[in-house]
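Hello Y.,

Per our agreement to keep a running log of every chain we model this quarter, I'm adding this entry. I've kept the format consistent with earlier entries: sequence first, then predicted structure.
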Amino acid sequence: MSVDATALQTAAQAAGRQSDWGQASTWIWEGLGSHWRVMGPPEGKPLVLLHGFGASSEHWRFNAAPLAAEGYRVYGIDLIGFGRSEQPGHHHRRPVDNRLWARQVCGFLEQVVQATAAQQAVLVGNSLGGLTALTAAVLRPDLVAGIAAAPLPDPALMQPIPLRRSRFWRRLRRPFVVAAMRLLPLGVLVPLISRTSLIRIGLQGAYQRSIRHDQDLHHLIASPARRASAARALRAMSIGMALRPRGATAPALLEQLAALPQRIPLLLVWGRQDRFVPLMLGERLQQAHPWLELEVIDNSGHCPHDETPDAFHQVILRWLDRNLDSTHPLTTKRGA
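Predicted structure for the entry above:
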């Protein structure tokens, strides 16, 4: 872990913040430091929480303990570029996009969680974490028992990427995107936003309730953005996500998931008041893929797990009861 990431962890522990849950550690994946945390009984069914854009494992502050209390072994991981994990810059041979995060998650399942075909893990993701969970399940379906995306965002769901682009466009696109991203003064903008009220204004858009006095939320979002490497990481993500092939977008991933010999259960959870990714999109997905489930939580925005945690837990636990093996201790206890 880098020096500034270690400082973040030390400060959080000293402050005794609720967001600093579980037992924290660092795992090295492909030479990059990945911060993760865990709580719950060692024999519990593995449940891996994947945060959204700009957040970290700390954003599951209201969820880890209740889920662990139900008998799950609850893990949280900071995706590369976020939280206390390493924040690399752009490299054309290792683009920072949902494919990289999915590979990170698959490595985490194998090496840390030690998931197997006999003891699969459940992936629960908020926003970008939901897209990452979907991608990881397509890459390693043998390790994944179920996916819950709350919600599932992707611009390609609104405007699908063409199956085939012209050769001229393909040759021009990469240098154009890279040049445009490098011209953006992110080295000035990121520190400015993270240290002013602009970050709270932007974050408020993800919530239905007021977050004006939620200092813990503000801290867990702002602190990683104040790291010296934050701007370069944001630039790398912007380039990587803009240049993804069609096969890495949500529509194509859903098609691949639906075509698996043994279909993995997929739950979509949507806040009815989500201003970032409107509920209409979730309803459209359910119409196109009747095999997936859609649950709507009232009085909630883009982060239902954090804004309405009790309702979120009820939805998740009911879905897990329906889809997990009946020998799991949670099913036995709740069904008694």
